[in-house]
Known about the structure:
- By secondary structure, the protein is mainly α.
- It has helices at residues 2-5, 9-12, 17-26, 32-36, 47-52, 59-70.
- The radius of gyration is 13 Å and the shape is globular.
Amino acid sequence: PLDVYRQNWREGGIEKEEEVFCFLNNYQFSSFPDLFGERRAKFLAPDSELKLLGIKKDKEENIKIIKDYLNQKE
């Protein structure tokens, strides 16, 4: 979804983290709002599958991991 928000975000980095999370939480074609926001889809991958992807039950820990990833410089 971040490629929709800003095509070259990997190269240029993320300037306004709050704006990015706002976009991700409102982007209707992503499961991000279901996993990390307030939206609750009726269908998602089972917890065992999410665990394989590194997604934990602790929403705050997941947000920290995402922020760390977004702030990495190549």
